[in-house]
């Protein structure tokens, strides 16, 4: 199983290669984004570990280029306290982040959690297809489309969409999304789920009835709403535009 490690610090790369090799991963190294893109053009990787601060081509620029051509999962390695970099990375399609310095066991756990939810080695069958009002989700390949057009979702965005569809008309908490999709407990001030759901909202096509596909329940989470579902069934806590549509205050 091949991973791509992108970091300009040779010492850190050596430590991580040794650690990941013990876990059975084959690791290719790149000292900057330019080299990483060259390796991506020649190899298939299950996951990319991407540092942010690098010379020649930094991690944010590299991530932009990666997402133009690949949906390979990306785990960002950021300096502790660089909240803006983390948020920008998530908005650009990174699947998760880990702040330096990090615990070796946590890094391995994050990698394995991402790989578990991105495993596309499941045989294609009718059971792998979810059709929700024209949204087609292939759970084997983690691809989503609408009327034949790919939505270009990252694996994490796909996981969020799959989960809220599986609980249509029921509130799904941010804690649940973080645990089941990202594989981690949501920590205070962690906005990663907010960013992933915002990206998902932007990528979903207009609905035929012009309603939103899902609503934000302030302080609670999100709810995917079926076309025939009567809005007054949504519990208290629904967002303002949903109340307005229902005639509420």
Automatic annotation (TrEMBL):
Residues 127-226 form the OmpR/PhoB-type domain. InterPro entries: CheY-like_superfamily, OmpR/PhoB-type_DNA-bd, Sig_transdc_resp-reg_C-effctor, Sig_transdc_resp-reg_receiver, WalR-like, WH-like_DNA-bd_sf. The modification 4-aspartylphosphate is found at residue 51. Residues 2-115 form the Response regulatory domain. Residues 127-226 bind DNA. One of its GO terms (cellular component) is cytosol. PANTHER family: REGULATOR OF RPOS, TRANSCRIPTIONAL REGULATORY PROTEIN CPXR. This is Two-component system response regulator CpxR. It comes from Lonepinella koalarum.
């Amino acid at each position: 199983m091949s991973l791509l490690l992108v970091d300009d610090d040779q010492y850190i790369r050596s430590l991580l290669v040794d650690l990941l090799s013990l876990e059975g991963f084959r690791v290719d190294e790149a000292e900057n984004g330019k080299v990483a893109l060259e390796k991506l053009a020649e190899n298939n990787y299950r996951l990319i570990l991407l540092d942010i601060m690098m010379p020649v081509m930094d991690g944010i620029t590299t991530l932009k280029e990666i997402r133009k051509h690949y949906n390979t999962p990306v785990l960002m390695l950021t300096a502790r306290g660089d909240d803006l970099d983390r948020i920008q990375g998530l908005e650009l399609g990174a699947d998760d982040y880990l702040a330096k310095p990090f615990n070796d066991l946590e890094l391995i756990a994050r990698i394995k959690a991402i790989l578990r939810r991105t495993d596309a080695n499941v045989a294609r069958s009718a059971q792998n297809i979810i059709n929700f009002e024209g949204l087609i989700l292939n759970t084997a390949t983690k691809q989503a489309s609408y009327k034949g057009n790919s939505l270009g979702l990252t694996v994490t965005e796909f996981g969020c969409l799959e989960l809220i569809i599986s609980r249509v008309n029921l509130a799904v908490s941010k804690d649940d999304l973080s645990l089941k999709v990202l594989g981690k407990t949501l920590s205070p001030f962690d906005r990663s789920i907010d960013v992933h759901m915002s990206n998902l909202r932007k990528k979903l096509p207009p609905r035929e009835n012009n309603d939103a596909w899902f609503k934000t329940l302030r302080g609670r989470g999100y709810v995917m709403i079926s076309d025939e579902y009567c809005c007054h069934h949504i519990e208290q806590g629904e967002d303002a535009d949903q109340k307005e549509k229902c005639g509420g205050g």
